[in-house]
Amino acid sequence: MRRFKSTLVQRNHFKHPEDDESTTSSDADSTDSGSDAGTTFRCGQDVDSRSLFDVWSASRPKQGGPEQAKFFLPPGSRRRLTPKNIALASRIVCSTSYELLRLLSGLNPIRTAIMIFLTIIRGLLPAFRGYSQALILDEVQKLISSGDFPSTRLGHLLAREGFRMFAESIFDAFANDNESKVHASVRFLMEHRQLEQRLRLDIPTLADPAIRDLLHESDLFVRSFNGLGFGFGLFSPFDLIRVLSSLAEVASQLYVLYSTTQGSLPFLTSSPSSPTTKDEPNARLQAPLLAILILPTLFSLIGSLLPSFSLSLSSPYALSSESGYYSPSHAHVSERAERMRSLAHGEPFRAEVALFGLGPWILDSWASARKRILGLEEADASPLSGILRSETGVGSLIMALRWLLTQSNASEMIVLLQNLPFLLYASSTSLGSLALYRASLQSVVFTMRSLVASFERAFQSVFFMGAFFAAMMVEPKLSPAPEEKMDYQSYEGGMKIEARNISYTYPGNSKRTLNDVSFVVEAGEMLAIVGYNGSGKSTLANVLLRIFDYDTSSSPSDSEPELLINGLPIRQLDPSEYHSHVTALFQVFSKLNATVRENVGIGNVGDGFSDKAVEEAARRAGAVKLVRGLPRGLDTRLECMGLGMGMTSGMGEPLERPGDEGYENGMASDVRQGLSGGEWQRVAISRALMRARTADLLLLDEPTSHLDAHAQHNVLKSIDHIRRDPVTGKRTKTVIIITHQLSIARKADKIAMLENGSITEFGTHDELLARPNSRYGAMYRATAC
Ligand SMILES: Nc1ncnc2c1ncn2[C@@H]1O[C@H](COP(=O)(O)OP(=O)(O)OP(=O)(O)O)[C@@H](O)[C@H]1O
């Protein structure tokens, strides 16, 4: 499989085929006949993520409401069993099955092969079990009628049955152990792949709604491997292997059924007491009688197909009654329930939940969404009301029909009919034959019904599998194509930044947040970016840090936008290489519910969280006294909310570090400490300064907003110290500082005044003050008063 070329990704965001105006409904329909929206591929051919993505997208066309209110089938939605979707599913299977096999067998091919073999054997065992028990029953029947006790043959049969049970339990133990090992390793591999890809993808890629939906369905595929998948309606390729066992079971039981009626099974062919000689039954009866065997399965197959029709006949907003898969509105409602749940659980929201009295609102919103999902919303209404309502009447009737069909197997008449082949054809009426016949019959019926259900689940999961493989091939939008990539070039004295006509529009917004921004910062200079709230300062910082990509489309000035770092276009630099030469403090920084060492050390994990590196960073940020005052120094666990749990970063377990003193006997220490806003800011500055030695650019967004005057002075002194060579005193780093404190800005070499996303004034403090009607001057005088 080929990965999506990043050039393509940069210029063409992932688009749903229907987003493209050139894609008409007939294009979408053409997927039925083999040519996919935009791309064609054949089974077994090397496939790229674009075509796989297009096939996956085509399975979730827009629907619901009038044209403008239409929405894409939400992620996790149930795909209808239509000819178009069947064609799409078969394409996904064709293009991904080889990769899937490689993935599943990759970790331990021998164990996987053994697992497949044992699964098939497992399907054959019930037939042997039934046969062995039937022999015992026959022998008992013979003994009762003859009174010929004791029987050595019965002793042999019982001993054989005991041995069979023993062997089967050993077989089961071995097969289960092997299977759980294969499961665990594949689960690990899938989760690892998923996590690896998540971490590779950058913010612009993750902000793409199509990619978000793709990752959501990919996540469902990965979750199907967790062993609980089946219960949630998810079907993993492992469940598909179990289908092999079911097929083997059906085949072996059908053979037993046939042999029982033909009397061809050894030792069961004749009844010892009263063998009955049957006339040769009418040959024309054979076919209909055998059809009776599969009648319930046919009914159940038809029944299981009905909900998809009922959904299309009733309201498009109706929730699916099927477990696990969402109808379109189901997914929306489920998202609302999930949002309310995280509001209730999330510690960061706790203060506002309490202050604004949000408890009842959260609970009511969650309850109404959850009731819809669970189908409890009309619990108070009469059971007939749904059927009588005109818009859902047809759907309800079809649901009733479905129930009748799927329950047909329990019908006594069908059970009686199923006995006819035995009564008409069997050459023996022995108890063992009858018991074997009944057991095999039931096994065939139930296994075939479960195969039908498996087919439906497998059909849905094929789309999740397509999403997984398409998601694994998505390239981060910010990564340059290999042929365009350039190596970062160091400049003496820091980093030179040249921005020409840079604009930025947030995804989904029509208005630009940055407009035609142009400026130059020479290596070693300090630039202060100032401006009113919402003027775009933090957005500009994210563009300069290559967290966001500037707009490619022509800027308002119609000049080609360009952002050069040390003379090289930023788009041609590998983001991770570029990031290794910069360090930053974000305006909203992460507060980890972890030790001080971890909170600071993540600024440069390469330093291994060592005392020396962390203490040095804390010293530069003026946080040494703070750390020394904590109960366990660097190993004090910090508390974000003062509630003893939760963390604002969304990170789970604390970082592990061998010999971490914050842990006792593998358990997190109970000594926890809350910090004030200013103290947290010093921790965050320490984190940013962990990389200060190697970085060419220091970008600090509001670094002193929470600091007292003394701390502000120290931090600024420290920054000035860091940016100079300790021996020569020459500048070695460029500094960009975003601040509302103009007393700080005036110390910078250059000041950029940002208003409504545009730089309106640029120069030194004195130059700007000297300008007539200077906006910066007005702001400075206002704050100085
Ligand atoms: N995630 C986002 N999605 C869409 N629009 C956004 C997003 N973040 C910011 N904006 C828009 O960009 C504008 C500029 O935001 P930005 O954070 O860059 O301002 P700022 O100058 O740093 O403000 P402040 O001084 O308050 O920190 C905002 O007014 C908002 O309209």
Automatic annotation (TrEMBL):
It comes from the Eukaryota. Gene3D superfamilies: P-loop containing nucleotide triphosphate hydrolases. Signal peptide: none annotated. Pfam families: ABC_tran. InterPro entries: AAA+_ATPase (IPR003593), ABC_transporter-like_ATP-bd (IPR003439), ABC_transporter-like_CS (IPR017871), P-loop_NTPase (IPR027417), Type_1_exporter (IPR039421). Residues 23-40 have a biased composition (Low complexity). One of its GO terms (molecular function) is ATP binding. Residues 1-43 are annotated as: Disordered. Residues 497-781 form the ABC transporter domain. Keywords: ATP-binding, Hydrolase, Nucleotide-binding. PANTHER family: ATP-BINDING CASSETTE SUB-FAMILY B MEMBER 10, MITOCHONDRIAL, ATP-DEPENDENT PERMEASE MDL1, MITOCHONDRIAL. This is p-loop containing nucleoside triphosphate hydrolase protein. It comes from Schizopora paradoxa.
